[in-house]
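Let us practice reading a record.
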Amino acid sequence: MKLLLPFILKIMFVSASAHAIDPKCDDHGKVYKVCQDQKLAFEEALAKATADKKTLLVLAGAEWCPWCISLDRMLTDPDFGQGFMRKNFSLRSIALFQGKEKIPGGQSVIEKIKKMAKFEKKIEGIPILAALNPVNGKAVLIDTEPLEKNVGSVKGHDPEKVLLALKKAQKALN
């Protein structure tokens, strides 16, 4: 931990000034902060998860994606899985699109996670969910499509399936 402390302090110090890419950009109230430096946000989240001794859960997506918003709502609910999420994971949302345009920094974060997970296939669709163990550097990509529970025109995920997938991912990381 002593070795990580200077890195964590550096990340925390630069975070306030380095997050805004364009001073005119406004993503206040949005899940996917397109105005922030996605790579820096990921590195900060990794440092925080390390310090908190938690698994980092990355949710990558876009504001226009109903499944992305729904999954974020579920994962940020303090009661989700009777607090399982809050006790075991540190969550970071990463923006992949601003409108329909790809955000290079977000795409770069996903490529880094794919390497950590030794995942060589092309990822199709969003949201992308990944669990990372910041201590040993292992990562697992979680396929979110089988976790869906769409009811009529409401797009979403099944809480029980998501919880089971998170528990399975956490086991695979140790």
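A brief commentary: The helical segments are 4-18, 38-52, 66-76, 84-88, 104-116, 159-173.
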